Amino acid sequence: MNLPRRHLMIGLAGLAGTAATYARAETPLTSDAPKGHVDTAVQRVPFYGPHQAGVTTPRPEAGIMAAFDVVVRDVDGLEDMLRRLTERGATLTAGGPVPERDPNLPPADSGILGDNITPDNLTMTVSLGASLFDKLEGLDRLRPRQLQRMVEFPNDALVPANCHGDLSIQFSANLPDTAMHALRDIVKNMSDALVLRWMQEGNVPPVLPAADGTTPSARNFLGFRDGSANPDSNDADLMRNVVWVQDGAEPAWATGGTYQVVRVIRNFVERWDRARLSEQEAIIGRRKMSGAPLDQPDANEHTVPDYTAGDHTPMDAHIRMANPRGPDADKHLILRRPFNYSNGIASNGQLDQGLLFICYQADMELGFLTVQNRLNGEPLEEYIKPVGGGYFFTLPGVANAGDYLGSALIMAARQS
Amino acid sequence: MFSLKPTAFAVSITMLAGAPVLAADPSLDLVAPLADYKIYVAENTAQLVADTDAFVEAIKSGDLETAKALYAPTRTSYEKVEPIAELFSDLDVTIDARADDYEHAEADPNFTGFHRIEYALWVEDDTAAAVPFAERLMADVTDLDARINALTFPPDVVVAGAATLMEEVAATKISGEEDRYSGTDLWDFEANFAGAKKIYALLRPLITDDAAFIEKTDGNFDEVDEVLAKYREGEGFKHYEALTDDDRAFLSSRVNTLAEDLSMLPGKLGLS
Ligand code: HEM
């Protein structure tokens, strides 16, 4: 029998709704939604705490980095904006039913997640740019000491429209729609204070667990595992040293915050895909498939490279320049939390994709700036081009429901 | 379908009969503002015809400088009533389409109207090239004026028009892409803004239960005025490029907030 299935279904539905539903569940139709996962949809990252979420919390699949211009006039306006942003962050990351409105009004919510917002591991990490401290009276003296406008490195070709900003929000979530829903919410509810300046979406490809149950690092768009040598984000002591600003290092309000560096780095993937495997591995300093260091090619990505053992790893390999693993190596650690991005094609017909590089550190100079300065001139530069981004200071966490983002900064600004 | 609210029902009766009907429902106070708005639109389309006449005359006589000087002021009366003008989509396309609306951009034979003329004057630097488009524009605005006079204004279009005008600014003016050859975007910006303010001012007395909305909206309109005032020059405005990044961001925030808030107007006034 060759009856078109769709017709059969409609016939069944007409006769008995429940039977049709049952039949559909067994063999999905073309138009049925891909099946969501209840267990991941309900995952919630705590919003309150000494630090904001989205830095040392696990990096989910989807990310958006959005930079805004802040158009408030004074510290009162800034406080109002930060309070409302906190309220949106707390609401969206907790999830729950969308408020109903009179149908003759535009709906309160974009509706892209339906009438019940799933938390889906959403985090919204709010950071401030140097330009905000320049702009608002009374704020300049409270600027984090190392917060500056992003500088241009020799290999950069920065596109002004994709750089800097007074405030950044990093959205992370299991699903891209959850992150996008949150961005849409902010754009809709905060338009009087926040004007979107640039944004970049990205993703982390999920990886199947290895035989021993661990999950290997995800691959970036060069096909290499990315994150292997990252400091352990579950090690609270280490994170205190590497990521979180401690008392005394910065203006008091900044304790518990961190420096956020964002770099939109295009990858010339056609060219990379035409480079010999041995060259690719020499440029990065790791085996492509396993991520093992070149001096121990049969080990795994977490094996620590040994640069004293012969010349297996070229001096100018990316990982060796980024971290020569000398005696002061711990001082220069950074926590990388990047996403891959793909923006269609460039005007020359080549794929426009790359790495939405994001890293966090307690000290800009010892962290990103030192590492990037070491990397200047690396052979990898032939295949990459930083085109956008900015430097921001991630605000300390929101202690509890009575607190709000940046409350310590606002309080300090009021004390003259 | 069968649960039409009294207001909406009464309003549709008004439309059918083509004559104002007053009813006990206070929302039907819309009738007076609608009549006032119709006068406003008619004045503007009449002005558009008169201004276009002078503009076209300058083009035909080969007076490039005068033609350039008249381009922006001629457009303003169109920009003020854009939500109503857009009811005639055929004319909106021939009068106000942009090169991006066509596959072959400026070279596209279907590209006509203000922006085609703008292109001829500023880029081709040639009044002769503009003549056929100028003649077409004259015919189109005359047609528009006649059609508007015969039109019964749909209340929902008028009330939603305030937000529509702000959407216009947010979508095409704030980026400077509308008048890209001449840089006269701030003229349009001001005109869209004046059109929105007119509608809001007519309806404002009907919003009796939301002082916060009125206060916020009044404030946002005033703030846009203040920023725009910085760019006034002679009878009009400076080149779009004079707009600083900070002011652009500020205007963008106010325009988007106005669009957001004014999108509540139809619902607030019981229109569905
Ligand atoms: C598109 C640009 C980049 C690509 C494709 C890339 C790729 C990689 C890869 C494949 C690794 C080895 C695996 C790992 O440890 O994660 C790595 C390591 C690393 N990268 Fe990058 N990277 C890029 C940009 C950067 C930038 C901008 C920085 C900082 C300025 C940076 C700093 C590091 C550091 C610190 C390591 C670890 C080195 C170690 O301790 O062994 N990378 N990168």
Task: Give structural attributes.
heterodimer, A: 416 residues, alpha+beta, 9-stranded antiparallel beta sheet, two-stranded antiparallel sheet, 12 helices, 26% helix, globular, disordered N terminus, B: 272 residues, mainly alpha, A middle domain of Talin 1, two-stranded antiparallel ribbon, 1% strand, binds protoporphyrin IX containing FE
The chain pair with the largest interface is: A-B, 15 and 19 residues
Strand-and-helix sequence of chain B, N→C?
Answer: HHHHHHHHHHEEHH
Tell me roughly what share of residues is in helical segments of chain B: 55-70%
Bound molecules: protoporphyrin IX containing FE
Shape type of chain A: globular
| Whole-number mean pLDDT of chain B | 88
Quick one: how many beta strands of chain A?
11
H/E topology pattern of chain A: HHHEHEEEHEHEHEHHHEEEHEH
Helix-strand blueprint:
The complex is a heterodimer of chains A (416) and B (272).
Chain A: H1 5-15, H2 17-26, H3 38-41, E1 62-70, H4 75-94, E2 96-97, E3 116-117, E4 123-129, H5 130-135, E5 167-173, H6 176-189, E6 194-203, H7 236-242, E7 258-267, H8 269-273, H9 277-284, H10 318-322, E8 335-336, E9 339-345, E10 351-361, H11 365-375, E11 384-394, H12 407-414
Antiparallel strand pairs in A: 1-5, 1-6, 2-3, 4-5, 4-11, 7-10, 7-11, 8-10, 9-10
Helix pairs in contact in A: 1-2, 4-12
Chain B: H1 6-17, H2 31-60, H3 64-80, H4 82-85, H5 89-96, H6 114-122, H7 127-149, H8 155-173, H9 185-203, H10 211-229, E1 232-233, E2 236-237, H11 245-262, H12 265-268
Antiparallel strand pairs in B: 1-2
Helix pairs in contact in B: 2-3, 2-7, 2-9, 3-6, 3-9, 6-7, 8-9, 8-11, 10-11
The structure holds protoporphyrin IX containing FE.
Protoporphyrin IX containing FE (HEM) binds at residues 220, 222, 224-230, 263, 265, 267, 284, 286, 318-319, 322-323, 334, 354-355, 357, 368, 371-372, 375, 384 of chain A.
